């Protein structure tokens, strides 16, 4: 009886910190950040927490402090508005991609996706019989003229002032019109209960991370909109070990490489390297730019899937 009471109060304690307990706790990136910033007093009991990017961490209870478990309507409103003054863009340097697929796993951890579900996928490409093959990461292109948003009958998917295209799964009715409308095959449908549904079930839905994921709705790349609020680069950009991704703000004409941390002029990078966007002829105006796979940054022996080329 005593033990049951103590378990109950432990659950209540963790809930007041915005933490849900399963095999391990689940903590949003917001609350972990708060935890990191909190000043440690005396060491005490530790708790296991699963961060939003899939890391299991042990945290001293004294380092936790209550996070504002923001009400759904505030998260929805903030998610719709986007970040004022920003115009986000991504640049993907195909000459550096060697199929490490760290971007894919970081994204899957961040957005509660199974290994067979992709917001970003690394494709093997070959443009003609006698040209060299290459790897091409493909996220949502966050089009400035997006066909996907125009067909949604319930205004569940929309474009924000900062250029990011999101989906509100509190509104999505799962009709899949947007999947048919997207020429880049960037959207996926949740046919089954999402991964770790039990662990995430008590978290308030965060439209900027699309977590918790919901069965019967649509999902896609969000440019890690929740991380951008914390001045962090998207998960995929930070996870790449090979310098493939640049991300930044077109208004400031600056993009930062996720591997080296180097910030460069966006316009110069595109101009000097013959940057392009996918299927420009469709008029979708993508915000993801590609640099051609010329002058590879690694030895290439002609066999794309040779073990030496993959890491
Ligand atoms: S890539 Fe597809 S899902 Fe993404 S904004 Fe463009 S049309 Fe919409
Ligand atoms: S599946 Fe959801 S987001 Fe897509 S068009 Fe239908 S309601 Fe809109």
UniProtKB/TrEMBL annotation:
Keywords: 4Fe-4S, Iron, Iron-sulfur, Metal-binding. InterPro entries: 4Fe4S_Fe-S-bd, 4Fe4S_Fe_S_CS, ET_IronSulfur_Cluster-Binding, TAT_signal. Residues 131-162, 163-192 form the 4Fe-4S ferredoxin-type domain. The keyword Iron-sulfur applies. CDD domains: PsrB (cd10551). Gene3D superfamilies: 3.30.70.20. It comes from the Bacteria. Pfam families: Fer4_11 (PF13247). This is 4Fe-4S dicluster domain-containing protein. It comes from Paralabilibaculum antarcticum.
């Amino acid at each position: 009886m005593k033990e049951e009471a103590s378990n109950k109060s432990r659950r209540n304690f963790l809930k007041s910190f915005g933490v849900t307990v399963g095999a391990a706790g689940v903590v949003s990136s917001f609350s972990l950040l708060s935890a990191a910033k909190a000043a440690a007093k005396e060491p005490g009991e530790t708790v296991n927490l699963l961060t939003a990017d899939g890391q299991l961490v042990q945290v001293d209870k004294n380092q936790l402090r209550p996070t504002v478990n923001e009400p759904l309507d505030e998260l929805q409103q903030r998610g719709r508005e986007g970040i004022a003054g920003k115009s986000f863009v991504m640049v993907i340097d195909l000459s550096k991609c060697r199929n490490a697929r760290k971007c894919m796993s970081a994204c899957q951890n961040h957005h509660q996706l199974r290994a067979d579900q992709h917001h970003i996928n690394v494709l093997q490409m070959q443009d003609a019989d006698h040209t060299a093959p290459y790897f091409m990461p493909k996220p949502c292109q966050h089009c400035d003229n997006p066909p996907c948003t125009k067909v949604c009958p319930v205004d569940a998917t929309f474009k924000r002032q900062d250029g990011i295209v999101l989906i509100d799964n509190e509104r999505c009715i799962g009709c899949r019109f947007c999947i048919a409308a997207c020429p880049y095959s960037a959207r996926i449908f949740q046919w089954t209960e999402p991964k770790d549904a039990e662990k995430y079930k008590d978290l308030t839905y965060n439209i900027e991370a699309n977590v918790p994921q919901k069965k019967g709705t649509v999902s896609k790349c969000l440019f890690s909109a929740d991380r951008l609020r914390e001045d962090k680069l998207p998960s995929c950009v930070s996870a790449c070990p090979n310098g493939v991704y640049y991300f930044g703000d077109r208004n400031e004409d600056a993009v930062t490489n996720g591997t080296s941390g180097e910030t460069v002029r966006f316009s110069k990078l595109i101009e000097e390297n013959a940057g392009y966007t996918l299927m420009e002829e469709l008029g979708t105006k993508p915000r993801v730019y590609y640099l051609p796979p010329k002058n590879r940054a690694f030895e290439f022996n002609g066999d794309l899937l040779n073990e030496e080329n993959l890491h």
